[in-house]
Every structure is written in C-alpha cells, then in structure tokens.
Amino acid sequence: MLQVRDISYSVATKTGDKRIELLKNISIDLDQGHSLAIMGESGCGKTTLLKFIYGLLPYDRQEVMWNGEPLKGAEDTLIAGHEMMKYVPQEFELMPYTTVFENVGEHLSIQTDDRESRIHELLNVVDLAAYGSRKVKNLSGGQKQRVAIAKALAQEPKLWLLDEPFSHIDNFRKNDLRRRLFEYLEAHQISCIIATHDKDDVLSFTDETLILRSGKIEDYRSTHKVYSDPKNVYCASLFDEVTELDGSLFGKKETLILYPHQLVEVEKGGIEVEVEKSFWTGRDYLIAADYKEKRVYLKSVEKFELGKNIRIDLNS
Ligand SMILES: Nc1ncnc2c1ncn2[C@@H]1O[C@H](COP(=O)(O)OP(=O)(O)OP(=O)(O)O)[C@@H](O)[C@H]1O
Q1: Which residue is closest in CA terms to ligand 1's atom 1?
Q2: Count of structural domains, the chain
Q3: How far is Cα of residue 293 from the mean position of the Cα atoms in its chain?
Q4: What are the residue boundaries of the ABC transporter domain, all occurrences included (predicted)?
Q5: Residues of the chain scoring pLDDT < 70
Q6: Of 25, 42, 195, 215, which has the maximum CB count within 10 A?
Q7: Which atom in ligand 1 lies closest to the alpha carbon of residue 51?
Q8: Which of 236, 254, 283 is the endpoint of a domain?
Q9: pLDDT of residue 290
C-alpha cells in the first residue's frame, strides 16, 4: 500500500530569491492492486508528482510510505528510485542498438528458467510478439513506447507509475493495448498511477481519480464520482465539452455543470438557444449553440444549420 502524506515541493526561481511551489499539500492512499489516474491541465504538476513518489526528488520529511515503512527521497539514496516501483517517463529510455527481445529481457535474471516465455508473454501484452528480433532504433515512436511498457513490466513492480503511456500509440491499437495492460495489472495485483490527459485511460480502467490544478488537489474521489458529479467546470472539462447553466432555468436549485449528452433538443419547454456550429462525431453531432452569449454544447442525431433557433432541456 502506498501512502503519500501531505507533500509539498518547491523549486527556487532563477534569481534564487523566491521559491515556486510545484506541489502543495498532496495526500494519497492507494491500496495494492488499485489504479489511480492523475489528471489536470498541462503544467499542473502531474509529472512532478510521479517523480516525487518514485523518489527522484528530495523528501523533506518521511512523506512517502510503502506498507507503513517510510521511503527515502533522492538526496538520501545512492540510486534514486524505489525498487518496488517502476516509473515509465514520457521520454522512454531504451537501448536503440539492441533488439526488442533484449530490451525487454534486460532486467530479467539470466538464470530465470522461463526467461524466454516470460519475455514472449510481455511482448504479447503489448502486441509486439512479431517484433522481438527487430532493433529498437528501427521501430516507430508508438512501437518504442510499447517496448518501454513491456520493459517496465519485466521488472515485476508492485506499483507502476505511468506518464502519458499511450501518447505515441495510434487509436487503432490504443484501446486493445489499454485493455491488455489493465487486465495484466489486475491479474498480477500491480497498483498503478497513471498521469494522463485522455479520459479513455481513466473512465474504464481506474478506481480513483485525482485532479490537480496549479499543484493542488482540486478533486480526489472514485473515478465514477469525479466524472459523474464534477466539482467544477475545470474538473468536468478534463472529460468532455462542458456547459455551465443556472439550475433555475430547469427548475433546479444548484448551478448545473453539464456534459453534451446531458442536454437534448425538445419541442416544448426548456430554453431557446441559437445554433452556432454542428460537428459530426461519427455517431452523432456535437452542437455548439449560444444562450445569452454563453456557449452551450449538446448532442444530437440531427445536424442543425447555423443560426437556427432550437429548444433544449435536460436529458433526464
Ligand atoms: N525543476 C524545475 N524547475 C522549475 N520549474 C519546474 C521544474 N520542474 C517542473 N517545473 C514546472 O512545474 C510545472 C509542472 O510541471 P509538470 O511537468 O509536473 O507538469 P505536467 O502536469 O506533467 O504537464 P504536462 O501535462 O504538460 O506533461 C510546470 O510549470 C513546469 O514548468
């Protein structure tokens, strides 16, 4: 079990007269086998938080605990990084002049009886079984990223720290790869913290979600709650387009933060909006409309012409 206790992390400005706080009062409890998503806008501190947990940055106090034991930060260890964790950074580190097979096997003991079958198992997880003998320098960016993932799994971590792990991988493979990986993690009871901008990494695969904004926790609950009951527009907009409307327009007390599928066109009732644009999304249209100079988004099976007035209501 991982426990992060009220951590803050700051760096000195270039002039050295001030400090910038990159992380402020972050606490995390992660049970073994659970997965946590870290979401937030670019620059909010996701990578810094992963590096901090992994032990690449100095700890002021005993702030990161593993199964109740305090861990040491970068300034107190010879080799930074905790052995029960594996951190897969955005810029993956591979050996370009050796094969995929050798890269993945790098950390497996030569004595391991089932060395070959273990490497094959991991290459299967990342769908690279056919590329074992290929030199890494001759792979595409997405293939290299998959090698980095397999290599990290070869070390049998208890906690996996992933920074935008699918950023180079095409949509065609992404969904399948996600499913295989998270199934592998579940089967081996490996915990996972994944920093991502992609809601598809989060909704189907993580138990909890922590949303960061300027280094502070904006929300930290079950992924289901973070998505379905967003605390504010910032949190909701990490998942989809968002409309914020006064609830009294629909007979509700609270301000409403709505995803496009939560608003629909109706014949009567609701409010009148003016269509500004219809975007085809494959299955239906995302309609951008104006309500008293406020942007409103809804889903529709029908395309609406620019300037058309339609009535919309809550999709209950
Ligand atoms: N050593 C450092 N010195 C000064 N500023 C830093 C340092 N490391 C990170 N930062 C700043 O801290 C902020 C958080 O960076 P971080 O890489 O953690 O963000 P992020 O949420 O992972 O962003 P992205 O989604 O773009 O990868 C950024 O503004 C970054 O420029």
Answers
A1: 11
A2: 2
A3: 33
A4: 2-239
A5: 62, 109-113
A6: 195
A7: 18
A8: 236
A9: 97
